UniProtKB/TrEMBL annotation:
The protein, known as: HD domain-containing protein
CDD domains tied to this protein: HDc
Residues in HD domain copies: 31-135
Pfam families attached to this UniProt entry: HD (PF01966)
SMART domains in UniProt: HDc
InterPro entries: HD/PDEase_dom, HD_domain
Length: 227
């Protein structure tokens, strides 16, 4: 039976429906709500960047966490493979599939000392959107949700900030959740590509700083000392 090529809008809608169905109910911080936020903010950031192709941007945003290495025994090709399988089924152009795969391959944070440059403007947009969702109030909530999912303590003042300069050590990290602020979250503001994302990050970063200062104050009971 001859098939008619889907429009860009149909491809995006069908991909959103597929990812939504796959991720509903996920409790580890990789839920549909995260993907939806990254999708919407990628769309907004791409609108400020004429070089970014909207179809590639939206598909990469929707599929960026579809098979994260953290949940696939460290297999870094699981994500690109799953995205290719889905998009091939929709008969999306090979060149679009390749660009989406590249973004998924490049997007992840791999430790503070490991550079993760993005090779395309669409990739810069989606990485920025993903990173904006890791800071601010949502970022704090996601970090503690992830730590809880892994059974980690909130904080341990004995554990000095641990900074990773290889992907291997970052992957094997089991430090309490507050360490994640020092090994990643507080540095994201400086690692954004687009001016629009940098603007949004100011307030979100400030919130991280405020949260952390108050958390540590309460941890030591410093506010009680003022009674
Ligand atoms: P992203 O979706 O931004 O690529 P990740 O996939 O690395 O981020 O992680 C998903 C969420 O879980 C993010 O909010 C991230 O900061 C958080 N997270 C990842 N690793 C840890 C950790 N070791 N402790 C606490 N939170 C973490
Ligand atoms: Ni993500």
């Amino acid at each position: 039976m001859p098939t008619t090529a889907l429009s860009a809008e149909q491809i995006i809608t069908q991909t959103a429906d597929f990812v939504r169905a796959k991720f509903l109910g996920e409790g580890s911080g990789h839920d549909w709500a995260h993907i939806r936020r990254v999708w919407l903010s990628s769309r907004a950031l791409a609108a400020t960047l004429p070089a970014a192709d909207p179809l590639v941007t939206e598909l990469a945003a929707l599929l960026h966490d579809v098979a994260d290495w953290k949940f696939h025994a460290g297999d870094e090709e699981a994500g690109p493979r799953a995205a290719r399988a889905w998009l091939t089924g929709l008969q999306v152009d090979e060149s679009v599939i390749q660009r989406v795969e590249t973004i998924i391959r490049e997007i992840s944070f791999k430790g503070l000392g490991v550079p993760t440059p993005m090779s395309t403007p669409e990739g810069e947009v989606v990485q920025d959107a993903d990173r904006l969702d890791a800071i601010g109030a949502i970022g704090v909530a996601r970090a503690f949700a992830y730590g809880g999912h892994k059974g980690r303590p909130l904080h341990d003042p004995e554990v000095a900030p641990i900074i990773h300069d290889s992907f291997e050590s970052y992957k094997q990290n089991t430090a309490p959740t507050v360490n994640h602020f020092y090994e990643k979250l507080l540095h994201l503001r400086e690692r954004l590509h687009t001016p629009a994302a940098r603007r949004i990050a100011q307030e979100r970063h400030q919130f991280l700083e405020t949260f952390l200062a108050q958390f540590l104050r309460e941890w030591e009971g410093a506010d009680l000392a003022e009674l």
